[in-house]
Amino acid sequence: MAEKILMKGNEAIGEAAIIAGCRHYFGYPITPQTELTEYMSKRMSNIGGVFVQAESEVAAINMVYGAAGAGARAMTSSSSPGISLKQEGISYIAGAELPCVIVNIMRGGPGLGSIQPSQCDYFQATKGGGHGDYRNIVLAPNSVQELADITVQSFELADKYRNPVMLLGDGALGQMMEPVDLTMIKTKSIVAKPWAATGLRGRKDSNIINSLHLKPEDLEKHNIHLQEKYKEISSKEVRYEAINTEDAELIMIAYGITSRIARSAMDMARNKGIKVGLLRPITLWPFPELVISKLASRAQAFLTVELSAGQMVEDVRLAVNGAKPVYFYGRMGGMMPNPKEIYGQIVNIMFGKGGL
Amino acid sequence: MSQKLFTRPQTLKDMATHYCPGCHHGIIHRLVAEVIDELGVRDKAIGVASVGCSVLAYEYFTIDMFQAAHGRAPAVATGIKRVHSDATVFTYQGDGDLAAIGCGEIVHAAARGEKITTIFVNNAIYGMTGGQMAPTTLVNQVTTTSPYGRNLENSGMPIRISEMLSTIDGAKFIARVAVNNPANMSKAKQAIKRAFEIQLRGEGFTMVEILSTCPTNWGKSPVEAATWLEENLIPYYPLGIFKAPEEVVK
Questions:
Q1: Is the pTM of the predicted complex or chain greater than 0.90?
Q2: Is residue A218 predicted with pLDDT exceeding 80?
Q3: Between chains, do B69 and A62 touch, taking CB under 8 Å as contact?
Q4: Which of A28, A177, B98, B229 gives B93 a disulfide partner, CB atoms 3.0 to 4.6 angstroms apart?
Q5: How far apart are CA A286 and CA A272, in angstroms?
Q6: Chain A within 8 Å of B82 (Cβ-Cβ)?
Q7: In this predicted complex, what is the ipTM?
Q8: Residue A1: per-residue pLDDT
């Protein structure tokens, strides 16, 4: 029997991580994700897990490096300025190919910015973020239920590819309460990690967790290996939701909380007989570029809606590749568009001066 | 019957290291390896090499190891130890790594009483990047970034890490040793062994600071470097046990 309980987004992530077998959480308080840190401090001691409030975001991500390298399912969470601090560690984790889950509940920036919802870390999340040629798998849920489901999937993807997975939400998703069914979550069995540095424990050869390759030939080889892995992830792990895209003349592209506002705008347009569809990328990396490129052969135009100055829109433009016009509408600094506002943009594009 | 009295520790690989002639890292590696062998913890030992000359330490030990980012070894070791509480976990860090960029991590690992051992190799200079000033560089010491000698007005006084960490409750064993002569080597090994033993008993954070030479960046021959260490480093960084559980002090 499905049993729904009312939970805050941040707390649902925490409980789902525990269901996924995460017993090692290292974090640092920062609004608007602090409830997750608090939740883990309460729950981990009940279930014999480990909670450490690190002295900084830098230390927290390096504790994750240690725990993940030692074979555990490890997680950390933060919000935008804190994620910036974690980038050095994330680069090392990607270099050493360690599986872990990093939650970013985004707030406004740059700098200290604000504590309100934002999607202004898209570039940082999807383009590497730290130094070096690497990719995080980036997943963007849009409801409290999906925050929970995707948390579990994040651990599984991380283990499958030995790669950091970033769960990218925004302050609204972290803070809002919705009914969530945690009994439906199924986890696959925890995979063996023969590469982990656990102490020899009878093993003959040492396991080394490392991102240093001093010989250029070795480092190039390692980078080629990483790129091949990223190519495999790109071909196998693209996730998205397409609503009313079959007959749509205008396709909106939005992720996370923005996709829900865009959906209301789409409904308003459909009620007026305007053929609007919505494509919601669930994986921001790998980005559903093939899907968008196919849609570009049929739809007349695209409208990307984001809580930023326009970051994902660049990937949309790359995917559309000039075939059709791509419009952008964004709000910043914690301002949220309302459906009417987006509907206004739709009308402008379809019937205004810059129309189809 | 002949008896083998001296052999390479099982925890150390039979290979040449990349360290410069006269550098003490080789001796310190050996002492750590001997202690791991003698305590019988090789099967559950996990080391964390830091950034700096000892970044390749994982090449020389025959145990599971991590390479950590600049200064972050104590945080990495925290993650490891919290997963494998039965493991013997140690960090191996230089002075640039531990006293500058990693000052926060070492202080808080000690404050948490993290059950790890830190081997802190202090040669008062940045080695791998080519001889720049460290927080432990002595006043008037010439380095590539203090070409007229470390200036008190500009850079302040060198940090005495052992004394500082001794004030932290979670730190259970803090000692400063040197490996510039056989007598000191013997004391250094005893200190390393005690530090590991205290970790094994689960008492808290332990650190052994080891004064060490850097002939290449000090611009001295190995013998001159050993003398310079004795005449200059030891007077500012006195050797001894700064903190220990009672039974160790006795």
A1: yes
A2: yes
A3: yes
A4: B98
A5: 34
A6: yes
A7: 0.96
A8: 57
